[in-house]
Amino acid sequence: QEPLTASMLAAAPPQEQKQMLGERLYPLILAMHPSLAGKITGMLLEIDNSELLLLLESPESLHSKIEEAVAVLQAHQISESTHKS
Amino acid sequence: GSSSVNWPPEFRPGEPWKGYPNIDP
């Protein structure tokens, strides 16, 4: 699979740009967190496209960003569940 | 209130990404 480039993204409409990035991110996240992959991908897609491209080129940066997202997601889920007694 | 129950939006491979509200043309 050829790497996703900024020019490939620029040629697509904004909605499709996120789709393209998500399709690249999802399998990488799935390998780390199979049960949370869809939601983590959704969270990471809130990041700027240019930064997402950098993350795709840098596995270490992506790894730490995924761990960050997992921590935020878990904290969110805990606060959701404690809110309703 | 349960305003943030649906956060975060879930990405599903092969399906159009609908995490953001569509911008009306």
Distance between the amino and carboxyl termini of chain B: 32 Å
Number of H/I helices of chain B: 0
Overall average pLDDT of chain A:
93
Specify the biggest β-sheet of chain B: none
Q: What percent strand of chain B?
A: under 5%
Q: Biggest interface in this structure?
A: A-B, 19 and 15 residues
Can you summarize the main beta sheet of chain A? none
The average pLDDT of chain B is: 72
Reading the helices and strands of chain A in chain order gives HHHHH
The share of residues in helices of chain B is: under 10%
Uncertain ranges of chain B? none
- Strand percentage of chain A lies at under 5%
| SS-based class of chain A | mainly alpha
Rounded to the nearest angstrom, the radius of gyration of chain A is 14 Å
Query: Which assembly state applies to the chains in this document?
Result: heterodimer
The geometry of chain A reads as elongated
Number of E-state strands of chain B: 0
Task: Furnish the topology, listing elements before pairings.
The complex is a heterodimer of chains A (85) and B (25).
Chain A: H1 6-10, H2 14-32, H3 37-44, H4 49-57, H5 59-83
Helix pairs in contact in A: 2-3, 2-4, 3-5, 4-5
Chain B: no helix or strand
Give a structural overview:
The complex is a heterodimer of chains A (85) and B (25). Chain A contains 5 helices and no strands. Chain A has helices at 6-10, 14-32, 37-44, 49-57, 59-83. In chain A, helix 2 packs across helix 3 and helix 4 packs across helix 5 (59-83). The mean pLDDT of chain A is 93. Chain B has 25 residues and is mostly loops. Chain B has no helix or strand. The mean pLDDT of chain B is 72. Chains A and B meet through helix 2, helix 3 and helix 5 of A and loops of B.
Describe the structure concisely for a colleague:
Chain A is mostly helical. Chain A is built from 5 helices and no strands.
Question: What key phrases describe this protein's structure?
Answer:
heterodimer; A: 85 residues; mainly alpha; 5 helices; 0% strand; elongated; B: 25 residues; little secondary structure; 0% helix
